[in-house]
Amino acid sequence: MANKVLVIGLDGGTYSILEPFSREGLIPNLARLMEHGAKGVLRSTVPPISAPAWATFQTGKHPGKHGLFNFFDMADKGFRSNSDFRTTRVVNHASIQSATVYDYLREARVGTISVNIPLTYPTPELDGWLVSCWLAPPGAKDFTWPRSLAAELPEYRVDQNFGEGMYALTPEGQELDSDFLFDDLTDIMHRRADATEILMRTKPWRVCMVCFTETDRLHHYLWRAVNPEYPAYNTPKGRHELERFKNFYRELDRRVGSLMETAGPDTNVIVMSDHGFDAPPRRRFNISRWMRDQGWVVTQAAPAVSTSTVTGESSQLATPPTLANSGAAKLLKRTAGMAWKRLVPPSLRDQVYARLGYIPTPQVVDWSRTRAWSFGVNNNLGAVCINVKNDYFSGCVDPAEVEKLVEEIAAGLRQLTDPHTGKPVVRRVLRREEVYQGPHLERFPHLLVDMDPDYEADRESGYNTFNPLVSPEEAYPNGRGNHRPEGICLAQGPDIQPGTKGEQSLACIMPTVLALAGVAVPDDLDGMVLTEYLSPRISGAVGSQEARGEDQHRFTQPSDDDVLAIQEKLKQLGYM
User: Fold this and answer.
1) Closest by alpha carbon to 515, among 540, 538, 535?
2) How far is CA 549 from CA 104, 120, 288, in A?
3) Nearest alpha carbon to residue 516 among 498, 491, 499
């Protein structure tokens, strides 16, 4: 009989944290895995964003086959009507256009425990017990499988507290309360580990998977705590945040060790991440501004109008009355705004806006004349979409003209330089066909723009066509961290071959879990079993089975209110 398999996901886990902390003796359990187990690098998806990455973890397939490119559904009517991520639905488990590891484990009748694996809401059915992820709407009652499981875990928390005292993107005049954040993330990490251990001790299982989202959150908010280049690094506050950062990892490491002990010595353990992390770029290159200057994007200023984040149609969203949106406050804002525009020269205003990352004027894109547009995907990765007729609500480019336009834009991008330094800012321009294969290729941008690591590509999911082409250099913007494609892969157990391994795709984790669990591996996956990690007994016995067709995903979609609540989370996290 196959041994048990325990998968511990550290969302955004990265060797740039684990290796120095290991040398300091802060994380002895993870250090032993790195030193005495198998150790390698997992290459994330393109883009290295949690939604497509965890879909790849679940399916063993790259985005072209599972259909997810970002947290936002690029096939949704909102995006197709005005091509703005902020008007579209957030993806969930029902969005994955492929069979998942849960389907194969259920069919094989493998007892399974799953806790907080991203993109498990709505909850898939399985032969076991599942606690959904942070993408479950706040207050959802159906976040477990079976539904009755929630009552067995009364102390569990699905996600961290957003709101007063903690801001991912701090409002003007307010500051991130780092102590509040450390306390909150530590609390939920312990509750997540507690719930997993309770299930491991009380339920019959062969595969257990748990993800700690808290590492990703910590890296997003407070990367400044571990980077000496941050201006306030060597201050009392900076030293305090570093110590709390280290304490969080001490506690996390202790819980990793506890999970491994609960699983038992005969369990094969994999510790992995969906992507890595590092410091953000120092400058922003606004490709959208360049696209407007080239005439591919046509815009005009317009009165401020709220946009529905569900339908993509213009509407005025109702907000509860507060002092901040009272009539007096609005009058004060208008008066101050008029004085600002009258007294401050436009060139200086542009510099201030660029430093704040602020888009001062709502922009109406004339889609009947806009042939292509760009947006920031993640960190130094940008994208270009062609406004093709019938693909988009106001598409204006004939399909026969797409190839010529793609080449024209790609050629221009390859020549881009920083006007201040003359430095080339684009490393590679890739057609989507060079990156993705599969039935969902048409959902994705026509071009992906890999910028020099010193440059952010636009802002994520937003237009910046009126901002300067290149933002002023910032020593360390916001102190936040940004995703990198290099994740971690550590393994230990009776069927694991220790040693340093080569770089492998994130898609390889799913088939490897199936192989370790004694389940035949589907024959249509992009990922391969990590045979270099496995003993000959396992790697030599890997069999295959016929692939399943696309899942029907007969789930009830979240309500519009639920979608808005999830979008607000993503806004706080910096994705909108």
Assistant:
1) 538
2) 12, 19, 39
3) 491
- Listed in order, strand segments (DSSP E) in 150-225 are 207-212
Q: How many CB atoms lie within 10 A of CB 564?
A: 16
Q: Is the pLDDT of residue 309 over 80?
A: no
Residue 41 has pLDDT above 70, yes or no: yes
Question: Tokens standing for 275?
Answer: 């992507």
Instruction: Indicate the helix (H) or strand (E) that contains 57.
Output: helix 50-59
Are the beta carbons of 472 and 455 closer than 8 angstroms? no
> How crowded is the C-beta side of 260, counted as CA atoms within 13 Å?
22
- Quote the pLDDT of residue 569: 63
Give 432's DSSP letter: H
Contact yes or no for 41/487 (Cβ under 8 A): yes
Note if the bond before 154 is cis, omega within 30 degrees.
Answer: no
For 285-305, the pLDDT digits (tens) are: 989 889 999 999 987 754 443
Rounded to whole angstroms, how far apart are CA atoms 489 and 312? Answer: 40
| Tokens matching residue 192 | 């997540």
Q: Tell me if 1 sits within 8 A of 111, measured CB to CB.
A: no
- List the one residue out of 216, 201, 203, 196 whose CA is nearest residue 256: 196
From CA 117, how far away is CA 357, in angstroms rounded?
32
Residues 188 and 159: their CA atoms lie apart, in Å, by: 7
Structural domains in the chain, sorted by start:
5-280+482-573 (3.40.720.10), 283-315+345-475 (no CATH)
Query: Amino acid letter at 418?
Result: D
Rounded alpha-carbon distances, angstroms, from residue 184 to 159, 330, 438:
9, 34, 41
**What single string gives the DSSP state of each residue in 62-117?**
-HHHH---SSB-TTSHHHHHH--GGGSPBP-GGG--S--HHHHHHHTT--EEEES-
Residue in 338, 308, 335, 271 with CA at minimum distance from that of residue 496 = 271
Q: How many CA atoms lie within 13 A of 473 on its CB side?
A: 5
In the chain, the amino acid numbered 41 is V
| 389: confidence class by pLDDT, cuts 50, 70, 90 | very high
pLDDT-derived band at 576, boundaries 50, 70, 90: low
* Contact (Cβ atoms closer than 8 angstroms) between residue 260 and residue 267: yes
Identify the pLDDT of residue 361. Answer: 45
Whole-structure pTM value: 0.84
